[in-house]
């Protein structure tokens, strides 16, 4: 045996443990659910590996989970006959937190520390650490079938843990929780988790559908019997026998009408490592050429690693109630990669491989059917409970939009009615269908504007003419919005039109158009002068009816928009030939006093027009959310102009 070795926790792991130890979280009892769930996962992995590695375990090997309360030692042990861990796996899985280096984890851990909110545990799938809510020391003894030695891990959650090699007769893992002492002042009763009735209650509540027997030795009083085997009146004796605490009947095998919503929710939280109830549950059975049962969940919250490279999509795969794959990604399209759940089909082989799955026609049929069911469920939610749908879209709407843009728009017709956007017409997001139904009779386009926030976009000068016509504008505040809409192209025959790109086609009357053309001719030299001063910055300077009270705005030509320019230039190594550049057109309001002043300056050959042209362009850039090339130059020119116009200098 090796000597005991002391190692330090990763920084984020220590902070998480501190949060556990000092948590005021009221549902401390879920520690048992989390540890049973981990035990079940470990057995799943061993069972799956044994399908192909036939010499890994004996043919009569017993898969089970044991709970062992010990009042004398104030401990509760959760023991499984699963895959176990090697020394390196213990360090990687327990000494550190998977994915903890991600920005999302660090940010959420900071929030959790401030608010004492430990939902982060369920979101990151590190439920083992919930043991420290009820234990002041945790001992883990584990043996892997791939190692000749067993490993003992132990920690009091003080920032370090010990490792040593020990003897263990069988493979699997046992976790010994040394329970905290009861605290009467805080009314915290940890010893209650040693009571048989409480353990039974928790297993029934949280883990009844775990596929493996959860067993515990229980004490029972039975009548004493005489020598002939007859019960002796009023005399009893205590006996101990092993009792299976869970039904093990898979939830998905039961009739839908016999399942309560609470049962669906607990099954979801227990099996998919989430602390929140799901948004919706889809449970159905298909019979015919392909027979299968599906239990699909739409989560209410995105896991914290959802937008990281570590996140893996997929549904669990079973055949005849036997687990064969953890995450079958072929069952879930990328735009619904947030789905959790399982498929149980007797048509699949026990030794099915990923290569076979990729070619499996039955799998493709099931995947298409799942997609249809999810789309129908989301449309129903959007129709019947829009507020709830809005919360869903905040979490997963980006994936819906990506689904429209992805694969050259192959899924756009499937997904387009699931889109919602902020709108100038309402405080609540609107669907495209609702927008079209509200369109004015003469309106040709679905108008939109892209930017960082609704509050910023509402103040854009380009909004003025649209508001004047009474037209509704969609606010695109997500970077992928415009890309998705370009792929969609149109909705119910109505094309999409950016209010800061090209001609708005607002159907001005002929008199307005004629008057604008005349002003353009009258001020041709002035506009050319401004354009010359802005050479290399704008492609054109023109007068516009787009503005009402604002003096100037910047619009892009057809093709790449300003928002697309920003997004594409933010992508690392996306443009080896140089930055993407949208065409810039400076539009001036001919009815604004500033234009009258410009005209006077030009006619008097005043050189200040050069600086004013630069300031107008810079002003338009700032309004569009662009950075100035030279903020110091802008500041100096602005200061000089203020001084001159104030009459402080001759």
TrEMBL record:
Keywords: ATP-binding, Chaperone, Coiled coil, Cytoplasm, Nucleotide-binding, Stress response
UniProt-annotated location(s): Cytoplasm
Pfam families found in the cross-reference section: HATPase_c_3, HSP90
UniProt region (A), positions on chain: 1-354
Sequence segments annotated as region (C): 567-650
Gene Ontology MF terms: ATP binding; ATP hydrolysis activity; ATP-dependent protein folding chaperone; unfolded protein binding
UniProt feature coiled coil, ranges: 509-537
Gene Ontology CC: cytoplasm
Principal location listed in the UniProt entry: cytoplasm
Binding residues for ATP: 34, 38, 80, 85, 93, 99-101, 123-128, 173, 354
SUPFAM superfamilies tied to this protein: ATPase domain of HSP90 chaperone/DNA topoisomerase II/histidine kinase (SSF55874), HSP90 C-terminal domain (SSF110942), Ribosomal protein S5 domain 2-like (SSF54211)
Oligomer and partners: Homodimer.
Function: Molecular chaperone. Has ATPase activity.
Family stated for the protein in its record: Belongs to the heat shock protein 90 family.
Protein name in the entry: Chaperone protein HtpG
Lineage: Bacteria, Fusobacteriati, Fusobacteriota, Fusobacteriia, Fusobacteriales
